């Protein structure tokens, strides 16, 4: 029976260097977006320039889609390894596109229920635009199988390749049409899924892109970083927007990156740096310096599995405890863990406002899965966005100005360089209210308490996590960061089985809304937490702050993101 709701999963797989990411992301996914459909894409690739196995998944729906899926309705396999690795994921009566002149399939290599489309991708491309366009042929063939015309694809090709000249544009259009016509002539269009146009009005971007544009909207004017997957594309994105007044500095290492960001923050410039766990290890001393000098900066930490270099191009949620306690001694910091592109945009703006309002380092915690996945979200509404520069000193008198004044809120008036009467000392030493080094016991207690007193108002200002779903749920699911979308998709599956759930997604982890989280756990019939680490770090943090245990834990730490189906199966067992 044919599907009519556009719930469709497409995968392209092959060797690194085959142009898989560009073909799937730039051409197929963006064409579906242009057709008014909701799209989510995720990619997996090794830490190699060439060789190794790459694959990209594109999930398409008529209504919002929040995560990838373990199932594949159509696989475009560019080598035999791709068939071997992924054919078991193909759904019943699904499709396999391959080039039979390169990939020899023996009897029994592929399940009998899978519909095989043997297409001479290389030969067709060579005759229609150039051999390099074999992926374009495959995408044209895909739309033929889905009984969907090429108008939107042609528009996307025009937008992608126009800078390379009309010959390249027309070559790709011709290659797509050749693949389309080949399928229509040889196989017809009797596939189980028809891809109809939708009505979604949305934008399509990655988590890192959402952070980048959020930073620009927040008024970020200085960004310093050393490249480290999966945070690197933030630097690339911001470098494109230097016309908006942001200075982007590729530093010699992560130590220089955070120190430059602190220097910019000291001068009153909104600044940010970004790295992964290994780079943040080098930044921790600087992070402490920002806390001691009460300098506002924003740090993005994009997690990948470790320790050490770990798995450089894979994902995980193993750095939560690390960022909460990074640097020596104790110092307050805000830790935000957004769960989708919408949250990445708005919470990045919040991060800059909080950093300046409370004169505190703010850390945005993401991971490879959410940083590099692309998704459709509603167009951002910036009509309510406000910039809060915090407590800036007005006409300070040099003899009376106390940069680190011991206020009830813990926040002191901040002067900017060259401001008359606002000169002060900012060093890594413990200091008095003027900023001069002091080591007396009473002074130490006063200044340490002052810095932590900021948390009292911070906690009141930040919105607590909201419990979404039915009040009489059988299962309450708790999550943080990138697991949000996978949980929402799992809830869809559970709802189809008549299992009622609700969902508590924790975005602000420091300070933690322990009271509100504790109330949810106490009222829940049964609780389960979903985390991408081995030791259930958020569950441990909740226990530490509330004394309450989460009943069950669903944990994954193989370097891959959760599939919704995994969460669904584990919760069904409960």
Supply Rg: 26 Å
Query: Within the largest sheet, what's the order of strands?
Result: 6-5-4-1-3-2-14-7
CATH architecture of the largest domain: 3-Layer(aba) Sandwich
Overall 3D shape: globular
CATH C-level name of the largest domain: Alpha Beta
CATH superfamily of the largest domain: Pyruvate-ferredoxin oxidoreductase, PFOR, domain III
- Give the termini separation: 32 Å
- What is the overall number of helices? 18
Tell me the count of domains: 4
In terms of structural class, how would the helical and strand content be classed?
Answer: alpha/beta
Q: Tell me the number of strands.
A: 20
What does this structure look like?
The structure is a single chain. With 574 residues, this protein is α/β, with parallel strands linked by helices. The chain has four domains: 8-201, Pyruvate-ferredoxin Oxidoreductase, domain 3 (3-Layer(aba) Sandwich), CATH 3.40.920.10; 204-377, Rossmann fold, CATH 3.40.50; 391-462, no CATH class; 467-573, Rossmann fold (3-Layer(aba) Sandwich), CATH 3.40.50. 38% of the residues lie in helices and 19% in strands. The chain is built from 18 helices and 20 strands. An eight-stranded mixed beta sheet has the order 6-5-4-1-3-2-14-7, sandwiched between helices. Strands 9-8-10-11-13-12-18 form a seven-stranded mixed beta sheet, with helices on both faces. A five-stranded mixed beta sheet has the order 15-17-16-19-20, sandwiched between helices. Helix 3 packs across helix 4 and helix 5 packs antiparallel against helix 6. The model has no long low-confidence stretch (mean pLDDT 95).
């Amino acid at each position: 029976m044919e599907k009519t709701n556009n719930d469709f999963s497409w995968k392209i797989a092959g060797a690194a260097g085959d142009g898989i990411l560009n073909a799937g992301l730039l051409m197929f996914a963006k064409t579906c977006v242009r057709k008014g459909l909701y799209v989510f894409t995720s990619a997996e690739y090794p830490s190699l320039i060439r060789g190794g196995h790459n694959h990209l998944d594109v999930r398409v729906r008529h209504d919002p889609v929040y995560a990838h899926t373990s199932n594949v309705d159509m696989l475009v396999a560019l080598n035999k390894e791709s068939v071997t690795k992924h054919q078991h994921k193909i759904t019943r009566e699904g499709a396999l596109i391959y080039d039979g002149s390169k990939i020899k399939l023996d009897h029994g290599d592929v399940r009998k229920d899978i519909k095989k489309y043997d297409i001479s991708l290389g030969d067709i491309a060579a005759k229609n635009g150039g051999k390099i366009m074999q992926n374009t042929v495959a995408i044209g063939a895909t739309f033929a199988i889905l009984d969907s015309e090429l108008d939107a694809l042609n528009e996307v090709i025009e937008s992608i390749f126009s800078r390379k000249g009309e010959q390249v544009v027309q070559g790709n259009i011709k290659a797509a049409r050749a693949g389309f016509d080949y399928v229509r002539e040889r196989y017809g269009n009797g596939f189980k899924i028809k891809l109809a146009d939708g009505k979604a009005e949305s934008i399509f971007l990655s988590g890192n892109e959402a952070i980048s544009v959020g930073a620009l909207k927040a008024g970020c004017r200085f960004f310093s970083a050393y490249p480290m997957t999966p945070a690197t594309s933030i630097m690339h994105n911001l470098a494109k927007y230097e016309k908006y007044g942001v200075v982007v500095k590729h530093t010699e290492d992560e130590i220089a990156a955070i120190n430059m960001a602190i220097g910019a923050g000291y001068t009153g410039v909104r600044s940010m740096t970004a790295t992964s766990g290994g780079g943040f290890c080098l930044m921790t001393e600087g992070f402490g310096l920002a806390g001691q000098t009460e300098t506002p900066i924003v740090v993005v930490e994009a997690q990948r599995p470790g320790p050490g270099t770990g798995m450089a191009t894979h994902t995980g949620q193993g750095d939560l405890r690390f960022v909460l306690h990074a640097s020596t001694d104790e110092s307050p910091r805000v830790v935000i863990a957004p769960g989708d592109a919408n949250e990445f945009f708005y919470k990045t703006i919040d991060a800059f406002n909080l950093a300046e309002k409370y004169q505190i380092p703010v850390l945005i915690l993401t991971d490879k899965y959410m940083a590099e996945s692309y998704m459709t979200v509603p167009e951002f509404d910036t009509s309510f966005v406000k910039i809060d520069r915090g407590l800036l000193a007005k006409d300070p008198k040099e003899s009376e100005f106390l940069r680190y004044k011991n206020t009830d809120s813990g926040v002191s008036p901040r002067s900017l360089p060259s401001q008359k009467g606002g000169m002060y000392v900012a060093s890594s030493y413990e200091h008095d209210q003027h900023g001069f080094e002091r080591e007396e016991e009473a002074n130490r207690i006063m200044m340490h308490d002052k810095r932590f007193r900021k948390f009292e108002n911070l906690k009141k200002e930040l919105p607590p996590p909201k419990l979404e779903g039915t009040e009489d749920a059988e299962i309450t699911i708790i999550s943080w960061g990138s697991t949000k979308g996978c949980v929402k998709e799992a809830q869809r599956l559970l709802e189809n089985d008549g299992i009622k759930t609700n969902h508590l997604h924790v975005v602000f982890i420091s300070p933690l809304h322990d009271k509100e989280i504790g109330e949810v756990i106490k009222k829940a019939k049964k609780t389960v937490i979903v985390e991408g680490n081995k030791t259930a770090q958020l569950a441990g943090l909740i226990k530490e702050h509330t004394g309450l245990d989460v009943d069950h834990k669903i944990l994954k730490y193989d370097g891959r993101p959760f599939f919704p189906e995994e969460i669904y199966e584990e919760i069904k067992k409960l």
